[in-house]
Amino acid sequence: MYLHQVPTNFFDIFPDDVSLLMVLIDTNPFFWNSINTSLSFSKFISNVLAFLNSILLLNQLNQVVVIATGYNSCDYIFDSSALQNHNQKGESLLQKLEEFVDKDESLCRDDSVDGPGFSLLSGSLSMALCYIQKVFRSGPLHPRPRILCLHGSPDGPGQYVAIMNAIFSAQRSMVPIDSCIIGAQHSAFLQQASYITSGIYLKPQLLDGLFQYLTTVFATDLHSRSFLQLPKPVGVDFRAACFCHKNTIDMGYICSVCLSIFCKHHKKCSTCGSVFGQAQTQDSSTPDRKRKTSVDN
Amino acid sequence: MLRKETNGEERRLNRDEEDEEEEENDRGHDAWERTYADERSWEALQEDESGLLRPIDNKTLYHAQYRRRLRTATAARIQKGLIRYLYIVIDLSRAATETDYKPNRMVVVARQVEAFIREFFDQNPLSQIGLLTLKDGVAHCLTELGGSPESHIKALMGKLVCSGDASLQNGLDLVHSLLNQIPSYGHREVLMLYSALSTCDPGDIMETIQKCKSSKIRCSVIGLSAELYICKYLCLETGGSYSVSLDEPHLKELVLEHAPPPPAIAEFAISNLIKMGFPQRAAEGVISICSCHKEAKVGGGYTCPRCKARVCELPTECCICGLTLVSSPHLARSYHHLFPITPFDDVAVSSDPHKVPKNCFGCQQSLLAPGKRLLFLLYVIMIRDE
């Protein structure tokens, strides 16, 4: 191992090595029961529990918070700084996880953004960021927070805007989002999340050794990461998908009003209804169309 | 030690440097001095349970939050100008050497403009900024229109000298000629940070204002000294906003209000399809010659999809073929202007302890703490889970 210079300067601001780790666990039963997993849920949880214990052993002041990402809801499963968890840490986590999975299944959401095959990553990212904001406001001495997503479900396209908003707010608060993909295919959302927030993205090749991947790559605190050779981002796909066919394109046309992406030249934007090449008129035939203010306002 | 009474107001505190300054301006108390002499601002502070300072009066905080909520609620369905070409005009006349902002107005303005530039590119990644200065009755171009914040900030942090008069008309003329060259789908804007109390113009400024109005340039002014009729007229005619700052925090607030995209003015926006490229990021070990620095670089970088030239950062225009290169996160940054989140509801504190949950849904903060804290934390409860 040789010194690996990280070009960002936020590592120099807080040289402390105490960390607050927010772990987002994917509990979507559609994913865990599908053929896309080579790991059973119970083996996965035992790997994660051992990893959480090793995080808490690394430093006495480390904190771990676990949030479960269901397909109807998300909830807090475990908080190591909560006062009632001094003994029986593992048992309370497993018990809360069981309660959560039962509750998640009983919630039948017909108005969910994507459908049952996708888990609510945007929800759990938002909750993790809320908790981190609370920690930031608790005073000047606080551990350095980071988020670790253990995700396997496919990317839900309806959550794109919400996930990008979460990523940008994590970037502003300088919270890295690490991702460990436990499913079969790569997740473009999490690749972008880790790239934009300077986190680590990893898709382990052998999931049986998940604990080893977690401890070697994701266990180090943020200050020590500058001394380690960690997996670099390979081929982050920043290409956009066109709104008309959902194909990934590398050259396209953008509507200057609503920034919708099209692969071919159109006369009219399908999202905002603007006619290209002429100034807008004042009539609004559909109630959905965005209004413009006039000069006299 | 000298003591002075002014019009029967309270006695000044016995400080030597204040006495010297007082001799210069016989207005008596300056606004910033009044907070020490009259208002005793230190008594307004209080410690909360964790030992952090908290002001007793939270009304201003809530009022600011309330105003922000109103603004987002009313602006939700109004079209915004997302691709902006903004010129910032900084007044470097004699009036900018005034010391009512510490150390002087020019330094404070430069500081606020630097923060504004970073915030602006964060919220409007597809837009461009240029800097102009007004000095000795003439307008100079400090930096050209560009999409990278570093070049503008470097020019700002360089040596800036103040002298002479400010000329509003020359500034507007220069901006008008520079903004004529931009494409028709862009929104043309000017933000003037005006410290002077007069303008020294070579011709008829009303003609210039009409010219700017017909070129669809939206001019906004932030005054640092007092309200001027000509600035007010300019902003009214062109559809911009005019505000005068009271002190440095207020100036910061006013300047940053211009960072989010303003409402689009009817008849100004010619919607167009802009051809853009989405380059892929090169793998880490690839060696290629970078077209912006003209030297060989290892790894990183992006490849233009049309001419395959390598560029270092996005968003940018390819030097070889002129294609605008962006990445999808840059477009996604503007989506929160297009699809703003629904504002939170203010929930009144209920006297029934069973109705209020024990912990906040979002951050698990305990809600049983008494007093004003509960009201603030209840904001977080109403996260719509959609």
TrEMBL record, chain A:
UniProt-annotated stretches for the region Disordered: 277-297
Localization in the cell: Nucleus
Chief location bin: nucleus
Gene Ontology, cellular component aspect: transcription factor TFIIH core complex; transcription factor TFIIH holo complex
Xref: InterPro entries: TFIIH_Tfb4/GTF2H3, vWFA_dom_sf
Subunit details: Component of the 7-subunit TFIIH core complex composed of XPB, XPD, TFB1/GTF2H1, GTF2H2/P44, TFB4/GTF2H3, TFB2/GTF2H4 and TFB5/GTF2H5, which is active in NER. The core complex associates with the 3-subunit CDK-activating kinase (CAK) module composed of CYCH1/cyclin H1, CDKD and MAT1/At4g30820 to form the 10-subunit holoenzyme (holo-TFIIH) active in transcription.
Protein name: General transcription and DNA repair factor IIH subunit TFB4
From TrEMBL, chain B:
Residues annotated as signal peptide: none
Gene Ontology annotations of biological process type: DNA-templated transcription; nucleotide-excision repair; regulation of transcription by RNA polymerase II
ZnF C4-type span: 304-321
Molecular function in Gene Ontology: zinc ion binding
Basic and acidic residues composition-biased segments: 1-15
Name of this protein: General transcription factor IIH subunit
UniProt feature, compositional bias: Acidic residues: 16-25
Compartment(s) of residence: Nucleus
GO cellular component: transcription factor TFIIH core complex; transcription factor TFIIH holo complex
Organism of derivation: Olea europaea subsp. europaea
UniProt keywords, alphabetically: DNA damage, DNA repair, Metal-binding, Nucleus, Transcription, Transcription regulation, Zinc, Zinc-finger
Family affiliation: Belongs to the GTF2H2 family.
Source taxon at top rank: Eukaryota
NCBIfam families reported for this sequence: ssl1
InterPro entries the record matches: Ssl1-like, TFIIH_SSL1/p44, VWF_A, vWFA_dom_sf
Stored CDD domains: vWA_transcription_factor_IIH_type
Domain annotation VWFA: ranges: 83-259
Pfam families recorded: Ssl1
Chain positions covered by the region annotation Disordered: 1-32
Coiled coil residues, start to end: none
Main location class: nucleus
